[in-house]
Amino acid sequence: MLRSTLASTLARCLLLTAPLIPAGASYAGAMPAAPSVASIDAPQLAGLGKLPVGVQSISMVSPRQPDLALMVKSGGNEFVSDRTLRVHLWYPAKGPVTPSAGYAAMVPAMGSAKPGASFEVAAVAGRDAAPAAGARYPLVLISHGFGGWGTMMSYLAESLASKGYVVAAIDHADQSFTDGATFGLSFGSVMLLRSRDQRFVIDTLLQRAASKDDAIGAIIDAKSVGLIGYSMGGFGALASAGAGYDKASASFKGIPEPALLPLTFGSPQAAPAALNALVLIAPWGGQVANRAWSPASLAAVRAPTLIISGDQDDIVDYKDGVSWLFAGLSGTRRHMLVYQNARHNIAGNPTPAAAADFGAREYFDEPVWRRDRLMAINQHFIGAFLDQHLKGDRSMAKYLDLSPVRANDAAWPLPFGSSSGAAFGTGSGTSAAYWPGFQRRWAVGLEMHRREPGK
């Protein structure tokens, strides 16, 4: 049975997922303010590509998964149950498409029995549009944070699908809670199920790719898979990529050992063979008090990795948590994009008008950064990273292997009185010492760190 220490150990982890405000730009045929549409000051690779986008929502049943709530309810007599997951799929569609009505969600009511207010985020994808035939595209899985929902990063999913990816996002359906005991059950379940959910959905979709009669499966490239995890999604993604948990970690006190063991370092479960790109946005589990991995387990990850974090993130501890993860992933080439003066809420969709009180605003927003700016920068760098490692596009390296490390130190000199207008830096000529893909004077407040395997 879960011990009470779990709730107290994890008490600071209530704010582990957050959407952001959209660009407010228009897109032909779409509802206004679809967040996948980049604003005029967005970096070069942000926004939508050339392909029409379709979206489907399906259910998958993962059999015999750990169920802590059932274990408590049954007095320990029952421990597993079949787990139903709702999965949203975005994909290149046979165009043209009619945009769907949007993505419905509810403001999370963390710690309350009352449901939050409902809201909707605009879409450019066509609901149940026919997939484009004739080509296969890399598969990218998106996994949200604690208390989040599957469409909370639709700005990124639609952008990737329009550029030639099949994107799947899981509704993990985290259990609600009203007190310390139910919080412990909910968060403990997340720790046991995030990686299991990710692996199950990837395996299921790769099986579909083997069927000639499956319209979605027929456009999935089963040899090229990427995994994006935000916060607790990043916690699970590291395990899915081969970093088994340290069973001696304080994070797992009270977790039944039989359920934990398959996820621990040294277990026979390997990362999916086709996993060639890993994106961790504000990943949980590196902070000293809840350090979930050993150095040896982190070093086992082989997929090229992009970490994105705010340097003021006090939920996952940038200095001693995220930076420790970045240093520890020594078995692979990795990048770390840092938002200076950003906290934890750097990953998701528009802040809804329904987030009217300060508690809701603190859940969704950042104190300093414009939300559309965060989304556009995420689209830019994640798109470049996936294109490089899932599509083999070596030209994307110039957008990632950046010098100087601090964007504020970059230089693009021009004569007094002249202007570069809306032109993007190219990494040559007068912008040779500037970050490629950004307009002059607009690459500020960012850092890009890079390490090679073995370092």
TrEMBL record:
GO terms for biological process: lipid catabolic process. Residues 1-28 form the signal peptide. One of its GO terms (molecular function) is 1-alkyl-2-acetylglycerophosphocholine esterase activity. Keywords: Hydrolase, Lipid degradation, Lipid metabolism, Signal. Pfam families: PAF-AH_p_II (PF03403). The keyword Lipid metabolism applies. The keyword Lipid metabolism applies. This is Dienelactone hydrolase. It comes from Massilia glaciei. The lineage of its organism: Bacteria, Pseudomonadati, Pseudomonadota, Betaproteobacteria, Burkholderiales.
